[in-house]
Amino acid sequence: MVTISERDRAKNAFADPQPYLRNNPYVDLRAEAVRRLLPRREGLSIIDLGCGDGRISIPLATDSCDLLLVDSSAGMLDRARSNVPTGAMNRVRYECVDLADFESRQKFDIVLCIGVLAHVRNPAATLRQIADLVGPHGCAVVQLTDDSYCLGRLTHKVGELRRRLSDAPSHTLNHMTLQSVCSELQSTGLHLLNSYRYVFVPGLRHLPSPMTRAVVRAVNGSSLSQRGGEVLALFTRT
Q1: CATH code, domain with 30
Q2: Quick one: 96 exposed, middle or buried, by C-beta within 10 A (0-12, 13-18, 19+)?
């Protein structure tokens, strides 16, 4: 479990968008997967928790959806603002706040929480927060590294090794499984409808960008992706 002292470390890790966004092919991979997973997307209300630069959810605003972008990093939200097309600007709102401090009375048709659960202080509380934001007949898409899969455990072990060898301050990542996330969300009335798995390949971002993206496309266009430790899961409220 991430400690309170590590909460600031996690926040600081994304304060500067560049290290996370530089040559990161998984943002676009997740964006495409989210669009495939989601049902009808026109005229809906959407919230993106930990939105980053918005590349995953902003395309949904072009489907005449209303979008609320939430992130603790002002730098990330600045990037997101620059990515919003002119025609969608009046449908996008922004809130710069730590997820643990975020409150909203509004319910949403779609709740996105991508690349966040590994970094929060209390994953179970965050999952309950996600469920509370989902309106009647709404849905949520969450992303996690699934420790029940060998490649998921390998991803965590590689990350831990890199943190030990690096002098840069870092935070401990939360470990979880898709089953544990399903159990937590089922208790709130959300049920797994569909999922998409993909493979995270460590070290690729040190390669030239075209090569990085080519490898990611090749690996995740093969049967190996079904064994991937990374998963995007779609939950619905019925």
Answers
A1: 3.40.50.150
A2: middle
